[in-house]
Amino acid sequence: MIHAVDMTGDSGRAARLRDELVDTLLSNGQIVSPAVEKAFRTVAREAFVPADTPLDTVYSVDRPVVTKTDEHGGHLSSVSAAYIQARMIEMADIRPGMTVLEIGSGGYNAALLAEVVGPAGHVVSIDIDGEIIDRAGVLLDRAGYGGRVSVMQADAEHPVPGFGPFHRTLVTVGAWDIPPAWLDQLTTDGVLVVPLRMNGITRTIAFRRDGDHLVSSDVEVAGFVPMQGQGAHVERTFLLPDQHGEHIRLQFDSDVPETMHLLDGVLATEPVSVWSGITIGNGISFADLHLWLAAFLPGFCRITADAGTRLAAELGKTWFPFGGVRGDSLAYLAVRPALDGAGVEFGATAYGVHGQAAATALVEQIQAWDRNGRHHEPTFGFWTAGSTVPQLPDHSAVLQKHHGAVSISWLPTS
User: Fold this and answer.
1) Which one, out of 17, 166, 280, 313, has a CA that is 20 to 30 A from the CA of 100?
2) Ranges of H-type helices in 28-81
3) Number of helices and strands in the chain (H, E)
4) Closest CA relative to residue 67, chosen from 2, 6, 15
5) Where does residue 269 rank: exposed (0-12), middle (13-18), buried (19+ CB within 10 A)?
6) Contacts for 184-192: CB closer than 8 Å, 24+ residues apart
7) In what order do the strands lie in the sheet with 300-305?
8) HEC-encoded secondary structure of 271-297
9) SS3 of 192, please?
10) How far apart (Å, rounded) are the C-alpha atoms in residues 223 and 209?
11) Residue 414 above 70 pLDDT?
């Protein structure tokens, strides 16, 4: 049985919160076009979330609403945070009359897209999960969008039968790669908006064609429920125990160092810290430092500790959950209060016989980011398998995928 929020006697509050949300998105610059504003003011978000969801949560700017979990509580489907839905639709530059493919269904986003493309356009929404598709279809019908949105159970790794080409494709699940089908179904002047995972770090990127490859036209920081089906990509996880029987987890998105066996007992060594002299003010995002490390730090990995443990409490005072393995040693990104009291200083803490070298290698990348990346917006490219990635400018990295290669470049703004 499918339920949505019962708005009997409360429709006025929902409408007020909807308008407040749109006003905030406009003020933040996350909605910029009248068509997208109209769509967000028109579609009732509460009609597409579980019935017990508080309206304040439904109309939060930055909180997703989970709609399906697995047996372990893992998120399988959600209504994404409103800000990223608005940004992705704006990034796609959707116009009336277009045909749009949505990969990853739920209903609400498809309804927004249907409003933007108008009666002359059409939206095709696919998902690999039949239960999610059935739910989306019912809710879209109930909200009056059944004739303007086609829902279909399908694995997005393959072409969508009976539809296409698409003027725009929006991927609303986290993708590790860009399969050929997405480009084959896209018009020559089409736009692909995809949350792309690059060595464990995700950026939502709007890609357009530029000759034989794709180039980014807009980028947003956001994370998504991971892709399922043939396009799924599983990280490799290693457990490192300490002398108290607690663990930290090292998660590798791509290449795993061949020296992992040398880390046995590494947490029993005395930690060493190296500081960079690079600071950042309180409340200022440094998400692109994580991206820089993912691009340039050998052995880059995500690091987590068992929740509620002594190790988690100890690490949580100084660290952020990224680091790198260097031979028999492990270093992670750390912070301490800046000397002037305004913000924090970046550094690295390391374990292992050669911890000093591992920490120094991470700090050198922090300093390189400060010199060459901190004040430049990264740009992205995608070259399909079989094509040649040309010589790229300085401060660029190339990450290999199954279906091609992704480039990340930090270039001075003109």
Assistant:
1) 17
2) 34-42, 55-58
3) 10, 19
4) 2
5) middle
6) 184/159, 185/101, 185/159, 185/160, 190/165, 190/166, 191/91, 191/92, 191/93, 191/167, 191/217, 192/168
7) 236-241, 247-252, 300-305, 319-326, 329-337, 344-351, 272-280
8) CEEEEEEEEECCCCCCHHHHHHHHHHC
9) strand
10) 24
11) no
The answer to whether residue 408 scores a pLDDT higher than 60 is yes
The amino acid sitting at 300 is: F
The set of long-range contacts for 140-147, using a CB threshold of 8 Å and a minimum separation of 24, is: 140/107, 140/110, 140/111, 142/4, 142/47, 143/43, 143/44, 143/47, 143/48, 143/107, 143/111, 145/110, 145/111, 145/114
The helix or strand, by DSSP H or E, that contains position 345, with its residue range, turns out to be strand 344-351
Residue 263: what are its φ and ψ, rounded to 5°?
A: -90, 0
Both tokens assigned to 84:
């990223």
The token pair at 182 is 């997405």
User: Measuring CA to CA, how many Å separate 111 from each of 62, 75, 148, 379?
Assistant: 19, 22, 8, 30
Phi and psi at residue 178, to the nearest 5°? -120, 100
Q: Are 164 and 179 a contacting pair, CB within 8 Å?
A: no
Q: What is the pLDDT of residues 277-328, one digit of tens each?
A: 999 999 899 999 999 999 999 999 999 988 888 878 877 777 779 999 999 9
* Residue keyed to tokens 């730090």: 297
Q: What is the DSSP letter of 29?
A: T
Give the separation between CA 334 and CA 326, rounded to whole angstroms: 17
Q: Is residue 80 among the annotated active site residues?
A: yes
Percent of the chain topping pLDDT 70: 95
Residue with token string 């929740």: 307
Alpha carbon distance 228, 173 (integer Å)? 9
Residue 324 in contact with residue 295, Cβ under 8 Å?
no
Catalytic residue among 77, 78, 80, 407: 80
Cα separation, 90 vs 93, in Å, equals 5
